[in-house]
Amino acid sequence: MNLIPEWRKAWKLSSLQIAIRDAIINAAALGWTAFDGHVRPVLWASVNMFLGVAVAVARVIPQPKVTGTE
Asked: For the whole model, what pTM was predicted?
């Protein structure tokens, strides 16, 4: 496995930003008192599924802000 050429610009990647948001949402859910039985597991799984697919789609879309190509 090799690093991407512009690895220091990785924070600009849409896929990384979505993945970080997903991780923050999941970490915050641990402390939500409203999460105890008030959020349906199907809804929670759907949100996580949507964000996971968004990461995959964002990963294959060219992102000129990182590579510098237009």
From this structure: 0.71
